[in-house]
Design a protein that fits this description.
182 residues, Dihydrofolate Reductase, subunit A, two-stranded antiparallel sheet, alpha/beta, 31% strand, eight-stranded mixed beta sheet
Amino acid sequence: MEEPVATGHVFIATSLDGFIARPDGAIDWLLAQPVAGEDHGYDAFMAGMDALVMGRGTFEAVASFEDWPYGVPVLVLSRQLVGTDVPARLRGRVRFADLAPAAAMALLAAEGAVRVYVDGGRVVQAFLREGLIADMVITRVPVLIGAGRPLFGDVARDVALDHQETRVFPSGLVQSRYRVAG
């Protein structure tokens, strides 16, 4: 019998200069964008996800929001958080683990997840390196922040992408969808 397989999917925004957060992890530049009334496809994307994997930095940024934005189970990959308590308001929604990308996907697949949202710079980079990302939606925000946490880091080999589509929004956001070719 074959082991269940989960696929990784990315939906993320970057500054025009390629950063997902400031050096301190702040995403104020992203939250300040005037995008009222624009449908960027996030809700439709999330409707197709069974679980979410993120890193500690992304978790800490999102956990500070007044409302928890996810309706799917969240696995936070972090050596630092393993063994600590999940905040009371997030118990049953979030868990912490120190797992490599393949082990995280195998765990989620064994629990019934088929499509997994992968979020956070280092986590996306690690999953890409291990060939665990099927596709990516990358939204470029028309702002230069000069320094920060890059979406992409060093890769051991080229990662070929097949461009699927690009959309331009009235706010100036430019969103491209890619399938990871191999």
